[in-house]
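Loading example: each entry is read as two labelled lines plus one structure line.
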Amino acid sequence: MFVTDIRKDFYEVVANQRVALLVAADIDALCACKILQALFHCDHIQYTLVPVIGWQDLSTAFLEHKEQFRYFVLINCGANVDLLEMLQPDDDSIFFICDTHRPVDVVNVYNDTQIKLLIKQDDDLGVPSYDDIFRDDEEEDDGSGNDSDEGSEPSGKRRRFDEGAIERRIERQRARREWEARRREILFDYEQFEFHGTSAAMMFFELAWVLTKDTKDMLWWAIIGLTDQQIHDKITHMKYVTDVATMQRHVSRHNHRNEDEENSLSIDCMRISFEYDLRLSLYQHWSLYESICNSCYTSSSFKLWTLNGQKKLREFLADMGLPLKQVKQKYTSMDMSIKENLRDVIEESSNKFGMKEIRIQTFGVHFGFQNRFLASDMVHATAALLESTEKEESDIAHNFIKALDSLSRGNLDRLHVGIDHAKRKLLAIQQTVASCICTNLILSQGPFLYCYLMEGTPDVKLFSKPLALTLLCKYLLKAFVHSTRNKRCKLLPLIMAAPKDVEKGTVIVAGIPPESETSDKKNFFGRAFEKAAESTSSRTLHDHFDTSIIELKTEDRSKFLDALITLLS
Amino acid sequence: MDPSEVEFLAEKELVKIIPNFSLDKIFLIGGDLGPFNPGLSVDVPLWLALNLKQRQKCRILPPDWMDVEKLEEMRALERKEDAFTPVPSLYYMEITKLLLNHASDNIPKADEIRTLVKDIWDTRIAKLRLSADSFINQQEAHAQLDNLTLMEINTTREFLLDSLNFMFKLRSNLQPGSSKGQLTDY
């Protein structure tokens, strides 16, 4: 059931209890976790934090902790499957689920006792009504709404060969079959497309706000959670803009509270500001030139993998009057005169070169004299830390804690390490995109585009992780759409496969919806993958919380693809 | 003595806070505290004030002496005098550091206050060093310094005592007919 009063029905319930936090491995979940941890610290609520990366992890974690904990909080996992069926909990376990995955499983919505959803009841949820899906069995169909009959088929006890009774029975069975067919259709429509809802970090920030315990740190984490959804392409642009407006109200409230007297705040205090900033990743921590070359928007608009594209980039820089030497330096050492009007100058020139949306609404933070970050910088850095493949024993819990730490203001050195990793990741993505397009690795398979990364590709280890792979998919699709001339291919979705585990011989397969201006980001690959795997009995592992990302045995790749093609055409 | 021990002792000082919760009087070994009513100021030890502030349960009011003009006067006075001037509080340095680290949003003009307190501290430490230097040069037997705080004493304590001990050893070895032929370690 949906929780209406989050303070009364969630926070006060867990106030004196020990809670188990099961957190998925994405940035939005990390931010939500940070906010919740801060709230728990304020009120001395004991909790245990368990990072989970998939359904198996979730089940194992639950089994380990079900003896000691009654209350479980699941962040960004668990809403889109029948949780009670999967975990088989005892009757007194209560689950609070704050998940952005939609559609929410109908059992989770209509269970009144054990499952509490910390989700806003938006109008885009579209949950089918109760009567359409559930009904007591053996209900009389004459519409008088009387109690359900206890026995089975009427032909059990009463052996009356009454014409009327037989007719009524046949009528009932027919109505029942109709109802079931309609139910299947409704459920199919409801569960066909997968998409994402409001950020979990924003939900918990609202909880903090209702408790009047919201601080600037929590606001910043909520903003990072929202920006993560935008960078990894999980929500539509409209929704992003709406959510940014909500966050901006909070930002102005916080800023107004502190700057109203002549006694301004210490420079060390955190200041969050609304920025209409450039869509260049990490540009303030890199050189402007590198950032333009490695950001998805600019590199695909210029087509920087071609010689022509490089020329156009040079023209672009010349048009703005920026000397190449300045632009290739670190941003912080660029001339002040250039930095002052940089955004407006870039916007003007990019309009001439066909990039109408080079600027995007976002937020920036600054504290101390030296530390200025944009929300997107933090997202890239933390994502790089979360999925870092640096050490040999890249333990998921280890990386999770490192990424979680990097979100705190006190751990700036970790954040800078993350920024370095993120730069390498963006470079790797750019190079992979360039090589895929130049060597025509993207094949049109009919209903979708397909690309397979061979094992020897440089940096292919980076792409064995889901977040990095989805980012690569998004960039690749954008670049492909800009580079191809085939009108039909521009509207196709993309499936990408990359080697995941060389010893076990598996690949990770991810599918993303087609690229379009008004895309509603609804992904049907989850169901498609399931059906294709079933029909070919390929050995797949649908472990990830996003159903559009699966693991597959390398040998089964071709038959899986064939099944998909037949399924989707 | 470790500086963290001195800071620990400093945390017993009382500061004024404005809580946002209510609680009856609490009886601790060190004394009674409270009762706490939202919006009414109450005196609590610094350790409790910081803990409550971190849990967002109170707002800390800066002590009276933590004001830009007063500190500027004190700094001017300190620079003028040769001896040590009376301090605003026996633990001024620790209180400033703790409050500015954890509650700088409750303290107006926090940056200037940090600079002023640091200036006062630097002047006093310079005077202390001069005084220790002249003490050793003139081989005095005793000295009296007023208005020193524990933290300042603590900065020179180890060095001064060790060097005086060592000089004593050297001196006693220079005297003829001394029984101590070799330097002994403590």
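The first strand of chain A starts at residue 19 and ends at 24.
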